[in-house]
Amino acid sequence: MTNDLLKYVLRRADSELVLGHRMSEWCGHGPELEEDIALINISLDHLGQSRSLYQYAAAVDGEAKTEDHYAFQRNERDFGNFLICELPNGHYGNTIARSFFYDVHSLLFYERLVHSADKTLAAIAEKSLKEVKYHFRHSAEWVIRLGDGTEESHAKMQEAIDEIWTYTGELLTDDELDIEMNKQGIGVLNSSLKDAWYNKVEAVLNEATLKIPEGAYFQTGGKSGIHTEHLGYLLAEMQYLPRQHPEATW
Amino acid sequence: MSEEQLQRDFQSKLDAEIRIEPKDWMPDDYRKTLIRQISQHAHSEIVGMLPEGNWITRAPSLRRKVALIAKVQDEAGHGLYLYSAMETLGEPRSKAIDDLHSGKAKYSSIFNYPTLTWADMGAIGWLVDGAAIQNQVPLCRTSYGPYARAMVRVCKEESFHQRQGYEIMMELAKGTPAQKAMAQDALNRWWWPSLMMFGPPDKDSKHTAQSMAWKIKRHTNDELRQAFVDKTVPQGEFIGLTFPDKDLKWNEEKGHYDFGDINWDEFYNVIKGNGPCNKERIKARRAAKENGAWVRDAAAAYAKKKQNKSTEKAA
Between residues 8 and 37 of chain A, which touch chain B (CB distance below 8 Å)? Predict the structure, then answer.
């Protein structure tokens, strides 16, 4: 039971950390100063959510672990984040598409997680939900602006949506752990979010004059630690300093 | 009102420490000086995001990562409201940014040095932000209203950054031998460039006298530099670091520290564009602008479509 809960908390934390890390790579390079600030802000929210979850994981784990242990001392195969979170930033449209699909999922996920029988998770969900509402507004508005902006932005945005689509299936399927945690009243079934996710995504893409991709083959593996080739580089960069100085505190 | 009368009114406001506001008459050169100074300051905030941004993805703990990102976000915010203060003088942000990209406008030359280790995040916060505060606190009383008000907020946040940087250094200085060496190396590399941040010595500063008369500036470069040295040296000694200056010592008689000669050749060379990172910094800013052009175009096109639709509805 403890192990299940730990694993469940960690993989959500991993998603928030990896996506927050990706978004922080934009710092100083955004398309407009105001957008730089918005992206940094959202990145900070994701990282803040990951910290709350890692701290809870440490409490559940009970082996004198810290939030930094999970972020800096685990290997690629230990990370349980959704694949979509680790995709490289690409151009601004790719970054927006990635966030948009994830934000719709987060919004629905946290809306349900606030009712979790686990009081800590419920509290984290409540705090996160406030932030995610803003993230969703930000990414959805940009999908619409870029989709219904110029011919060039429309083409770029459609391409981004098509490219990332294959990573969205994972957001809406359950593995054994999801099913078990849901049975205990702690976790949320991703599959239960499916209809609402499609409706929200479709409404925004319609307004953006973009087409829902037809591809129905979806990549999976994130939750069981089978990642894209991108994650290894992200972790190598993120973890190098604490690993080089295992005795140090910072 | 005659030009002479306007000039007299302007001067009497300065004398009475009354702030000059955007709609007030002001001499052309006063306006130009302010545009130069505020835009340089704004550019420094924006370019300054790059050397620190360089360590965001490699910060060694989650707490440090989040604090560093928040700091860089503050800098973006400073840039934003300084550009706004500048725009009250009639200079558009887009033009100021073009001047930065063409090399016509300057920014603080400290940001043309590379950030090579994590300790540089400590040294920048402690020394560079420390020097910035020394320069900027008097600007909260500068004669131009919007600039003075912007500086009040900037200074509050800078002082937080300075403490954060010093805390990073303190942690390293009491850490493992490798961490301590990292901290010492960062101090060695950032100390002299930090002293250069106050600008050329008073005898060679071409803007100081006029800016003091207009009460834009309140202290000379050398006064500010001395105050910074006096404040910073005990902080470094307290955490067991050594300053890279054999002439640095307390002068009982003067009540100040004496310090060695600054390499002004290096300073002027970095200003001219020959610093280690000048080209990279400007290249990164230009790339951000060019890569984001299609995004800004799309936002403008979409806003126009929306506006047309609402006009149609109204008609």
Answer: 17, 21, 24-25, 27-37
Give the SS3 label for residue B258: strand
Output the CA torsion sign for B192, B198, B199, B201: negative
Q: What is the pLDDT of residues B152-173, one digit of tens each?
A: 999 989 999 999 999 999 999 9
Residue A249 tokens, joined: 């505190």
Q: Does domain A2-244 have CATH number 1.20.1260.10?
A: yes
Identify any residues that bridge with A10 across adjacent strands, giving them in sequence order. none
- The pair of structure tokens assigned to A41 is 């802000």
> Do the beta carbons of residue B198 and residue B135 sit within 8 Å?
yes
Bridge partners (DSSP) of residue B256 are B251
Q: In degrees to the nearest 10, what's the CA dihedral of A13, A19, A22, A27?
A: -100
Complex ipTM > 0.85: yes
Q: Domain-by-domain residue ranges, chain A? A: 2-244
A90 touches chain B (CB under 8 A): no
How confident is the model over B256-304, as pLDDT tens digits? 999 999 999 999 999 999 999 999 999 999 999 999 999 999 999 999 9
Q: Give the distance from CA A196 to its chain's centroid.
A: 18
How far is the C-alpha of B86 from the C-alpha of B81, rounded, in Å? 8
**A193 to chain B, closest Cα gap in Å:** 31
